[in-house]
Amino acid sequence: MIFEGLNEKFQNIFSQLKRKGKLNEKDIQEVSREIKLALLEADVNFKVVKQFTKNISERAVGQEVLNSLTPGQQFIKIVKDEMTTLLGGEIERMDFVDGRRNVFMLVGLQGAGKTTTAGKLANLLRKEKKFKPLLVACDVYRPAAIKQLEILGEELNIDVYSEHDVKDPVGIAKRGLQKAVAGQYDLVIMDTAGRLQIDETLMAELVNIKEAIEPTEILLTVDGMTGQESVNVANEFNRLLNISGVILTKLDGDTRGGAALSITYTIGKAIKYIGTGEKLTDIELFYPDRMASRILGMGDVLSFIDKAQNMMDEEKAKKLEEKLKNNIDFDLNDFLDQIKQIEDMGSISSLLEMMPGANKKALKNVDLSGADTKRTEAIILSMTNEERSKPGIINAGRRKRIALGSGTKVADVNRLLKGFEQSKKMMKQMTNSNISKKGRMKLP
Ligand code: GDP
User: Domains (ranges, CATH) in the chain?
Assistant: First the structure.
């Protein structure tokens, strides 16, 4: 679960706060101290932590909280605001250049995820922006890098420019760009070489590539699991290349939060995308406010909707949207449909963790990931039509029969029904927070 440690700690801190009626200065100091410890433990840069806790305590001790009728809530709001600011504030979207070719240069240490991200990004932008992308393999040092990009290109059906047995990345970059001009590609993504550590020769080479191709974006790919040491790396890349933004990868792992929370404040550059898994669709545009919500355990319904929209078959999504809009109840048939589609999006628990108040313990109960899909399908297919459309009637006797019919245990049936209830709640939230307000499921 993303930033699990931080998430849990903030939820604890917040529930203590909510229990308290009035807050005094001492309470605020105490909570700020707890927040400070939580952030330090998550490997957030010390200076960042200091500034963050200073900001929240100053605002909280001011009139904003102490005189409020709901001091706990007010305090939480301040934490959320400040965290959003820390993560980059108002959303910084990518600058796509109208009428000019978009040329991205991906840089970063070896293993940060550049090659994978090059493929993910090309795929995403082809879909979202209708670009015709070209990937260029400029990493001539890591033996398998060129092949890796070629395989990605094949898998995604995206063209790759590469030269084997040529050790001149600047030349490859230039010729890649020429191919893009000739072939009318409007998005060029250059995958460059990384080392295990920053080294002068590599940096000089990257500067040369930059000068030769004049990229519209230089995106530093940073391994989100590395914590605050990534800040030093980012500083150095930024000093020499004046990067335009950061892509933070591997946010699906045991990321503690250090890199995400330290990087923008320290180098003054926005995180533009995040990588959230090994699949080629696991990339998201970065929204500071949504990420703050996720870190603080408040959920992120909007990202869920984006993800669902990216993955879902448009026809089915439309039907579901209609159904939700018209307040027709979400039943087990829809649930089964969803599960089949969601199989491609990652586990249900990874989606549910975007829901407000999700916590690891609760999610354990509703883990219907991967291997469980077949079993889930079998259980639902063992139900009668009436049971599927009115799950409320599934009593103990019926559960036993369904378990027997599907070759599963009653506990499995129970778990599925619980997962269904969670999903149903989630759908309701989507309806309330989005569809009804905006008329349709669309980005803000
Ligand atoms: P490069 O050396 O910077 O080009 O890094 P690669 O693209 O080869 O990635 C290194 C490893 O990280 C590969 O095994 C990728 O599958 C993995 N990886 C990249 N992005 C992500 C991500 O967002 N999540 C996870 N879990 N793995 C990732």
Answer: 4-86 (1.20.120.140), 102-298 (3.40.50.300), 312-438 (1.10.260.30)
